[in-house]
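Lab notebook, bench 4. Still working through the backlog of constructs that have no structural model yet. Next entry is a single chain of 88 residues. Request: give me the structure tokens for it.
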Amino acid sequence: MDIMSALVMTTNKFISPTHGTLVCNKPFLLFDAEFAMGPHWELFANRTLIAANKARIEIKSPPWNPEVPLVVLVASSGDLSPCEFKLD
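Model written out:
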């Protein structure tokens, strides 16, 4: 049975554009990635699964800032931890 998880990430500074790779301990299916800014916010995020346990996420606008978490929705067969979001 797959488990749906919301991975929540925060930053301590403004970052724009946001380009990074999500790497987890186990394979996962990537569903969505967006800033938690409310129901009417339009976000253009490119999301690509590049390996069974890695996904590439690119957000050109708006800037990622300390007040707004980045939320990535994934499904997996178990606990994904540890996960890391590596900016580049």
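Notes after review: The mean pLDDT is 90. Residues 37 and 81 are 25 Å apart (CA to CA). Flag for follow-up if needed.
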